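Chain A, query sequence.
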Amino acid sequence: MAVEDADWQRLLETPELAPVAFPLAERRTMARDKMPAVQEKIVNDLAVDGYHGWSNLYDLVAGRISIPWVRDGKEEALSVGQASNVFADPDPALRSAMAKKWEEAWAKEAELCAAALNHLGGFRLNLYKHRGWKNIHKEPLDFNRMSAETLKVMWEAVEGKKDVFVEFLKRKKKLQGLKEMSWFDVGAPLGKVAKTYSFAEACSFVTEQFAGISPRMAEFCAGAFQKRWVEAEDRPGKRDGAFCTSFPLSNETRVFMTFAGSPGNVSTLAHEMGHAFHQHVMAGLPFMAQIYAMNVAETASTFAEMVVADAAVKKAATREEKIALLGGKVRGSISFFMDIHARFLFETAFYERRRRGPVGVDELNGMMLDAQKEAFRNGLDRWHPHFWCSKLHFYITRMPFYNFPYTFGYLFSAGIYALARETPDGFEERYINLLRDTGRMRVEDLASRHLGVDLTKPGFWEQAVEMAAADAREFLSLTD
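Chain A, predicted structure.
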């Protein structure tokens, strides 16, 4: 039986439910936005072999791709995961050769990928129609607890600062001696950093930098390192990547990574310890109040990474080392401002076009090219038309538009870091309180309460983007 609004409000005000009033009210609103429960159950049951089945098919297609490659005179058959590592090689000839093979490999599977993408899109559009949802961005916006206005203003702030990143790409092209700048060259390294760290040195460096921002954060990390909560041994048989996992009953966390002494490894360590600290400060809250969305999940981690990356640039021993470190920072910004933007533009255009019927491979390629050229301001010479095939994120069924939350998280963290540098007094308490509220507020309320900013207005976002733009301008100055 439905609960009347007045009764529901009184229920949320009881001492037992008040601590979880926000997530309960959110779930009620989301349920009201959907079809009756019986119909939603039928949809969920059918989705296992329908909707999610197409995502599973994509996983099988991607898993079976084999790309021929010659390394050290020996012929190999690389998986897409192994092949993608070649794009980080400093040799442009190797990147170019792999780019050709990469496009060819995905082109062979394009028909199957197009079928999967069209049916995923068709399922969502039909479901949204029966729920009465007209805005294709409604579901991801609801999931990320943010408004359409915030999303719009965020992208406008990014668009307003793109020129300097286009200049960065032109300078990178010149420095690397490239006749043409390819999409596959964007993430390539610029120069080398001589400095290497022992794990103990990295732990000390991370803790030292955290201490300047938040003594409690530094104290937590020092304790975690001392208790050996980080499994970082560089040994055979370990999977790639890094992650942090938490144990709420013991209020402990564990970090998994492979540490080899590079500055990138130090940044990864800081990133994962940011996640760990986020969970640490949420101790004592009800479980439902600890569930935060994708766009703020990266807040503490990206913030921690920024603190350490900024310090590394300042401590660079040589001009060349500083250029390499700055180049890495700017590459990250380009990923969020241009690559992620291209994904958002493509997916938005795809859903609008999909309303009229299935979209063929050639048209999908054309839409992808249009999105990349718009997002990169035509700053490249060669593109990646089959990116819609090769990117897993377009085929994830738990949430559409698995793209803009990354840019939000990056800029939200940058804005927080800017405030930390400008108004350090009292920052730690404000920051910790913000993290504790990530599971029980919409992002606009979160920013208003703890940062005193309005996310639906351009000021906060422009300040955040300007931090990244300043790095790009410094890089251009150093390499002039």
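The chain has a mean pLDDT of 92. The domain at 51-193+316-480 is CATH 1.10.1370.20 (Neurolysin; domain 3).
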